[in-house]
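User: My notes are a mess, but here's the protein and S-adenosylmethionine's SMILES. Can you give me a structure?
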Amino acid sequence: MDGVRKTFDEWAQNGRAELMEVEHGKNVSKFLDTISFDEHFSFLDVGCGNGWVVRRMAKEPNCKKAIGIDKSKKMIIQAKKKTDSKNEEFVHTDIESWKYRGKFDFVFSMEALYYSDSIDEALKKIFKLLKPGGQFFCGTDFYTDNKATARWKDIMKIQMHLHSKKEWKEFFKNAGFQVKTKHIKDLKSRKKWKREYGTLFIIGTKN
Ligand SMILES: C[S@@+](CC[C@H](N)C(=O)[O-])C[C@H]1O[C@@H](n2cnc3c(N)ncnc32)[C@H](O)[C@@H]1O
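Assistant: No problem, the inputs look usable. Here's the predicted complex:
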């Protein structure tokens, strides 16, 4: 089994999935609050963990369908247990090999894409899964400009691709996206990097 899947299978069972929900929750909510979901939409979360973002989005009045995918089977088992609305769905798959015929208005991913074998390939797939005019919101705390996070790679001991904001923007452009970025800072956090650099959101639009 690959190291990423093995690690997150463990995290699904030792409470760290819920810890991520808390750790990422504040900045993700702040970011999602800046987006208007005022028309009917479909939503995909890539690397959804225990599914907390899917549950949040499924409750938006205009959300027709919210799907979470994760390559960790145990994360998907947790997510399915926590399901609390009819328009939610969870699928055990990696983004690269997922066979899905439909297209989404929004794709989201938090702290997941840099674990994929190839960010290029994952982005190409996400681009294909979006409708014209659709958007991909990609959140990462792990990026070169955020120096405090570089050592995470040594702690995790699994494949993690570390890139700068500039490099992330290039990846998105190469996949065909129009790209913008946004830093969401948590000025009240005890962690200095959360106040200084915060979560980087790369926003790709498929025109
Ligand atoms: C750091 S966790 C973040 C989980 C969730 N997004 C959150 O913020 O709580 C990364 C998740 O992405 C999943 N993942 C990593 N690479 C993936 C891929 N190529 N396709 C699907 N899921 C992937 C992992 O199994 C893991 O559950």
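Residues 43 and 177 are 18 Å apart (CA to CA).
User: Great, I'll file this with my notes.
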